[in-house]
Amino acid sequence: MIDTAGFSIFCYNGRMTKIVQEAAPKILAAIQKANNILLHCHPSPDPDSVGSALAMKFALEQMGKRATVIGGDSPIPDGFAGFPGVNAIIPKKFSEIDLSEFDLFIIQDAANVEQITRYAALTIPLSIPTVIIDHHRTNPGYGSVNLVCPDYPATAQLLFDLFKLWNFKLTHEIAANLFVGIYADTGGFKYTGTNPNTFLAAAELSKAASDFTKIISEMENSATPDDIAFQGVALDHVRQVCDGKIGLSVVSCEEFKSRGIEPRFVRAGNISSILKSVKKWPVVGAVLEAEPEKIRVSFRSKDGDLSDVSVLTSKLGGGGHKAAAGALLTMPLPEAVEKIVSTAKEIYNL
Ligand SMILES: [Mn+2]
To answer: Per residue in 103-120, pLDDT tens?
Structure first.
């Protein structure tokens, strides 16, 4: 009989990147020195952000530490109700936290300080030490201890490796949260970052979290009629720019208002993901004025395509990945579109 558990551990130790192996003891040392540890979810949190925060919370508690997860700038989406521990997330923004109550801040899945909060201008270093654990290529490593691995498709997969190196027990709570993070950030195991280790991790996690299909179904089928109405408006305002090479959804705040769409339903990433399905557009984006002169920008490129959309969003003050990136612009909508189009032309030689 094949010992599958042994096989997966063998593969992992053989393939784990050196950078993770080197950072693991440094992060563990920082955790051991601390007692009250802060974790957060990034603005418009996705399953990788929330799942990683919760998995780390449970892991820290295994070590006898006190860990607090704050929801951050945005509410936690209703569809995440099945994530173990989600009810323990404290609905506070970073600015509402008294940092003196904590002795370590573990910042996960956040490429820059804007992914901690957009309600206050943060300067790092903070008054307490910070550990960065992230997989965004645009992350400069702004913490006291940094683990930034763009080779990993999800922060949750990075945590899986760390927990293995630390010999932590893979409880149901940890496994389910890591599984949803990996699942979502790989687009259901189909984006280019997905690798054999992703499946080895998922296989092991699915043993400890056998209810993963239920959690995913709840997560993926939680749209509201307002979400669908929003998508209708955004898809009704798609134009082609850069000689038809880029498909762009552009919607003004007045348009949203006249159609009864509230700002909280405006999710640029949902729209750029849909536009990506159009074969003739190598790059697609959503430029949505959720509130007056507050423009949510999201871009997607085809996996395997050479267009790195994180270069475009970085020039707009945002960040992200090669195939999925975003930014937030504060300016009139026509100016934003003009800026995006001219920047895209320059970067992609269109
Ligand atoms: Mn992520």
So the answer is: 999 999 999 999 999 998
Residues 215 and 276 reside in one and the same domain: no
The Cα–Cα gap between 272 and 275 comes to 5
**Residue 290: φ, ψ to 5°:** -70, -45
Residues 166 and 207 occupy one common structural domain: yes
Distance 48 CA to ligand 1 centre (A): 5
**Ligand 1 mean position to 178 CA, how many Å?**
11
pTM of the model: 0.86
CATH number at residue 82: 3.90.1640.10
CB of 110 closer than 8 Å to CB of 124: no
Tell me how far the alpha carbon of residue 67 lies from the centroid of ligand 1, in angstroms. Answer: 21
Is the predicted pLDDT of residue 2 greater than 90, yes or no?
no
Cβ pair 157, 198 in contact under 8 A:
yes
Number of domains in the chain: 2
The boundaries of the domain holding residue 305 are 225-348
130 C-alpha to ligand 1 centroid (Å)? 18
